[in-house]
Amino acid sequence: MLTVYSDSHRLQHGQAELIDGTLKPCFETPSRADMVLAAVRERELGDVIHPSRHGADPILRVHDAGYVRFLETAWPRWSALGRDYDALPKMWQVRRLREAVPEHVEGQLCYYSMDCGTPITAGTWQAATAASDTALTAADRLMGGERAVFALTRPPGHHAARDYCGGYCFFNNAAIAAQSLRDRGLRKVAVLDVDYHHGNGTQDIFYPRADVLFLSIHGDPRTEYPFFLGFADEKGEGEGLGYNFNFPLPAGSCVSTWFVALDCALEQIARFGAEALVVSLGVDTYQGDPISRFQLDSPDFVTLGARLAGLKLPTLFCLEGGYAVEPIGTHVVNVLAGFEARG
Ligand SMILES: NCCCCCC(=O)NO
Ligand SMILES: [Zn+2]
User: How many Å lie between the centroid of ligand 1 and the Cα of residue 167?
Assistant: First the structure.
């Protein structure tokens, strides 16, 4: 399987995130991608190529122009205030506060974000655009005839909505790739999110649409991040009604329960008649993940890959979460190798 990878990911390296009321070192670190790349090479998964540049247009196909402009200008405006440390919001535009977009960078930082775990740094723009190019290059290769491609994307993307960042995500790499596949002629694309956390951003982007089916298996938002989206009764709106499937599972759910949800999701994808599949591949479903609470173990990721291959669809994998850094490479490549072995 071909891998698309950019070294520019290491330009995103936040110093701290606010977790459980205290500032802690970021869980989303460059070492995650280093370990995945090492495993791709060690297991001889296939060629590794660098992304080609695609510019802003494909990003603007799913993200709001004001939000993109904010991400591009945030750091220079922040550092012009004499601040050489990460930009993090200090409040949010919640119920009954004005929805007007603030002019000041501090206000925009609050307006265009959903949490304080997603630091904007000097390298964020470059890293996030490189991740988007990575996903787009994978889409190019899929349309060029590859059966499956792995976009080794960092920073991740599935929490990034049309107009806000969060959950370590800035651009929604999987959504950008899915939209690119649509723009290049596929009529129906499915996005399946197997990360521990609900892909609120991807749901936000495709919620009113019937051409992109979104499905997510995740920790129940009643107790798990992102708390405010990911419930089973969210089924889409307007033309998109019936094209959004959430499978929230209680924290601590056993592996067999997780695979029952996966099989339900796969059935919906087959019923939809998808012509391609984009997988938001988070491996924080691992039993040893430091911030998540499912029970998958290493062999289960092989099984996951084989189940996905059973759809017999051109498939694009985008890396999302997974914070047990030591085994992350093994788990990601287990999915990809399991997919390949199913043939
Ligand atoms: N800082 C709060 C938790 C962010 C979750 C990030 C993630 O893994 N999303 O899939
Ligand atoms: Zn996650």
Answer: 4
